[in-house]
Write a structure and sequence with these properties.
The chain is an alpha+beta fold and 87 residues long. The chain has one domain: Peptidase S8 propeptide/proteinase inhibitor I9 (Alpha-Beta Plaits, 2-Layer Sandwich), CATH 3.30.70.80. The protein is 33% helix and 29% strand. It is built from 3 helices and 4 strands, in the order H-E-H-E-E-H-E. It has a 4-stranded antiparallel sheet. Helix 1 packs across helix 3. The longest helix has 13 residues. The radius of gyration is 12 Å and the shape is globular.
């Protein structure tokens, strides 16, 4: 899981113990721009892709799905999505 940032790794470890079905929001970067074939490969792992911009995507998935995704050669890195509140 060297492609997974520490915050996401911590969230995955917690979810595996406490709530394996929890959907975790994350940001991913691929080695190439994301085309339909790459998108289908990612979604084939059970990942729900929300947005795509070049080689970056936002998505959600369970801890097990994200760990499986991290093992794919096309994935460069995965990071926990940050939710910001604006006043």
């Amino acid at each position: 899981m060297e492609k997974v940032d520490p915050a996401l790794r911590q969230k995955i470890n917690y979810a595996e113990k406490e709530n394996p079905s929890e959907q975790i929001e994350f940001l991913g970067r691929c080695t190439n721009n994301i085309d339909d074939k790459i998108k289908k490969n990612i979604e084939g792992k059970g990942i729900n892709i929300q947005t795509v911009a070049g080689d970056i995507f936002t998505a959600s998935g369970t801890a097990a799905q994200i760990k499986s995704l991290a093992g794919m050669d096309i994935i460069k890195n995965l990071e926990l999505s940050v939710t910001r509140k604006f006043n």
